[in-house]
Predict the 3D structure of the following.
Amino acid sequence: MKKKISDPKQRLLETATSLFYNQGYHATGINQVIEEAGVARASLYTHYESKESLLLAFLHQRHTDWMEGLQRFTDKATKPKEKIAAAFDFLFDNNEKEHFRGCAFLNILSETTDNDTAVLAVIQDHKKGLRAFLGEILAKEKQGIKDHVYLLFESAIVESQLYRHQWPVQEARKMAVGLL
Amino acid sequence: MKKKISDPKQRLLETATSLFYNQGYHATGINQVIEEAGVARASLYTHYESKESLLLAFLHQRHTDWMEGLQRFTDKATKPKEKIAAAFDFLFDNNEKEHFRGCAFLNILSETTDNDTAVLAVIQDHKKGLRAFLGEILAKEKQGIKDHVYLLFESAIVESQLYRHQWPVQEARKMAVGLL
Amino acid sequence: MKKKISDPKQRLLETATSLFYNQGYHATGINQVIEEAGVARASLYTHYESKESLLLAFLHQRHTDWMEGLQRFTDKATKPKEKIAAAFDFLFDNNEKEHFRGCAFLNILSETTDNDTAVLAVIQDHKKGLRAFLGEILAKEKQGIKDHVYLLFESAIVESQLYRHQWPVQEARKMAVGLL
Amino acid sequence: MKKKISDPKQRLLETATSLFYNQGYHATGINQVIEEAGVARASLYTHYESKESLLLAFLHQRHTDWMEGLQRFTDKATKPKEKIAAAFDFLFDNNEKEHFRGCAFLNILSETTDNDTAVLAVIQDHKKGLRAFLGEILAKEKQGIKDHVYLLFESAIVESQLYRHQWPVQEARKMAVGLL
DNA sequence: AATGAATGAGCCTTCATTCAT
DNA sequence: GATGAATGAAGGCTCATTCAT
């Protein structure tokens, strides 16, 4: 079961990923998606029920990829404190690679209302997953410390997007490490 | 030179404020704005050059109002530690009143690319203003403490929006107060 | 692969032809075009990139049709002098059929600035084609005569539009024939 | 009864003249007119009944100015043949000064339908005036020669606009002079 | 599975004009 | 006479989706 190089479904997802992430969901039209993906308009609807379902696919994929990246960074270290430091290094690396576009989930969250229950659920699940992931690294710490690190971690992402600068990552990293 | 009760410019700004904040900038059409404001389509352009300039007006107004609100809360306290606690109480209060829609500036930031220089500048100025405000309260503290409080403050806003829950505000408040 | 009776692209072109020619380009709105063509608004953009590209399509089609008509008239005669006379008869005929709306290309030229390079090029190409066509009929004449006939031919079109009268065609015809 | 330097009515007329002539009537919005004239929107309607009446004012003024210019050129010569040559030199001069925008009246004619009776009348009157003017210079010639020169004169204007080149003026001048 | 055509609704902006001051 | 505000209609174009092939 080989995948074609030019698998339309995959190309649509990749294009949507790039566009939704970099310019936002509502600012991205499906015209742009299908054009950059190089597929026919109707083909989008062969593979995805709607624009929103393409958004959901993007978020799911992003969750997997992002958590894998985080895992890869933290796996390099052994001690909890070092793992946490490595987690912040992952943010630093992402900022470089993705030009400070911040968190895909929080960005979409900003475009989401209470009516978009499916989208909201995926976003919250992602963050719960992250929180749990950091919590496991800090299994021996008290809940207060876990939360504290998590909140600093979140700030680091958002604030480096805001200022287009790494200082929040670096400062938050110091603070988090200092807590441990 | 009295102001009319139904000043259209003001109504447009109020309507835009509500819509941009609650459902996002790109998700809000000019049609909805003028309809809810009860003005003719072209009247919008008598007062605002473009949709983006209406957005900028909203952000400026929001900055003023929000900082005033924050000021009002912190003025109630005298000691720095209490002022910081009061600042978090302001967030708590906002969440109740605005149904966890989070930070207007960070939400718009998510819909903003590097090309939107004017918008980006207003957002960054707002956050610099907030950071400076908190920094003055903590004038006697080291820069590291100031930053730490600021990052927790930001987290509190974002995460309570994400979870539609006050716990991040309450936890971050405890942590911040604990630092002082 | 049969063509549908109500081919929308063709209907759009025909409608645009009639409207652009009879009331001008800028005076014709897209709304009027789609309404009279009986197609949905967006369908226009399925077939034509923009209003200007519809204009270009109109001019191209008009060039072909008009030159064919001219050809048909001049083919009836054998001697150059008679062919030229027949060319003026073609103008006479057009004026009757099209109610003295003059030259589609010169009319659009009036609405064209130096920035509209694509449109300007089509217009100039049309006139170069006409000039070459007349020049071939008068192959044995000197260049000065060729130009003279061409200029009278152009005057005949423009002035009969201006006065809503055939006299310029008839006078110019006499003059041109007299030159040969 | 002095005229103010910044007479609004005059400024409006001058601005409209420039814009209607250079970019066309329908392509010119009153916003652009009032902005470039530096007057308030409603002031336009203080002085002119409507956009069309501004157009008529432009055409009337243009007629006067243009005929004066033509007069000035032909006055330099004494013999009919030289006066006609001078008339063509006037066209040459205009083309240089006005960047080959052609005849203001014929351009507006292209944007005019049979319903625009007032506009059409002004245009026709202008051309009748020109034709009479040339006719008077050639008072001793037969009607056929008068018409011939007139038609070449008209061609010279239109075709130099079309090709953005002086050759039609120069060629038509030679032909006209050759007829006398 | 893939596609080009078609669509009603909506996008943001400007139109020419009128009104109250 | 001059003006800023206000307006309904229209400007050209794009939206997300569906349909017939």
Observations:
- The first helix of chain A runs from residue 8 to 23.
- Chain A has a mean pLDDT of 95.
- The interface with chain B takes residues 22-24, 26-27, 99, 102, 106-111, 113-114, 123-124, 127, 144, 147-148, 151-152, 154-156, 158-159, 161-164, 168, 171-172, 174-175 of chain A (CB under 8 Å).
- Chain A is about 75% helix and 0% strand.
